[in-house]
Amino acid sequence: MPSTNVNPVLVELEHGDGIESRHRGIAIIIDADGTVQESWGDTSQIVCLRSAIKPIQALALIESGAFEALGLSDEQLTLACASHNGEPMHVERVHAWLARIGCDESDLACGPHGPSHRRSAEEFQSAGKIATRATNGCSGKHAGFLSIARHLGSPTSECCALEGPVQQRVLSSVAELADLDLGGLGSNLDFCNAPNLFAPFDRFALAFARMTDASKAGRHGPAAEKILDAIGRHPALLGGSDRFCSDLTLAAGPNLIAKSGAEGVYVVFLRRERRVILVKIDDGADRAAPVVCCALLERIGRLRPTARKMLRQYRYAPFLSSTGETIGVLKPNARLA
Questions:
Q1: 38, 166, 279, 328: which sits with the fewest CB atoms below 10 Å from its CB?
Q2: pLDDT digits (tens, 9 = 90+) for 280-308
Q3: How far apart are CA 5 and CA 253, in angstroms?
Q4: d(CA 268, CA 52)
Q5: Concatenated DSSP letters for 78-98?
Q6: Strands (E), the chain
Q7: 70 contacts: CB under 8 Å, gap ≥ 6
């Protein structure tokens, strides 16, 4: 059942002399042992993580044996977790990955989608290129699913089937880390045609937090550590230019790793502290989630002055006029300060 609680305002758009818009949501800071440091809103609410769940989905790529058997790299492991911009650095690596496993773009279940990065999209269009499946921001995740299917000897056409061997491995990883029975996970189809999951917000938060501590992640510990190591080494492949998920690690170092999900979801892994921040914006506003993440990182003293400066566009996101003049700001609500 949907939550009947009203979640607090986390982000406000200050425009001129007043507050024009408000974004409510849920946020939590939780340790790998399940200790909740702080929380806002109804953390028992059932949510869908969308692409934020990709680092957990990628566990199956390693644990199935496919990663090692196919000779895959940390770059490909990062792309398996990515919601990338479709920039050349992403697309070229996806093509190389598909060729390595004897597949091509037609094997990707995700549909054609042009670059999501504005400058890349403009260059793409001016060159007369058309949207492809490799340009889709989820193409790395799907290449990962295809790799697992190849290694297991199962049909690649069924790698996104919920009852198939690939997705059953993914489901088991999520359920185990979240302390849920498989029956406690709801499912739907994501925008990219792969299964996604519904579960209580705090269960997902626990699953992510356990990834930061191999001793708490059980059998998933080695793979979780390898995934976060890979992303820390290749943050630009996780999102790309002008993306908070990439810019946070580039600004603050590999101790802080962020992963976006559509509809206002973000998770931040604090590896040294063995802790995560998880955010879900009620109205699905993607613009609001990085503001909350930055506010909470500052709240717990995890952003150095240089990183705060480099991330200012996310901490206090400017609201621009059609001529590029700053006429407002998207800022955290005072309750997060």
A1: 38
A2: 999 999 999 999 999 999 999 999 999 99
A3: 37
A4: 10
A5: HHHT------HHHHHHHHHHH
A6: 9-15, 18-31, 36-40, 46-48, 186-189, 195-200, 256-261, 265-270, 275-281, 317-320, 326-332
A7: 100, 101, 147, 150, 151
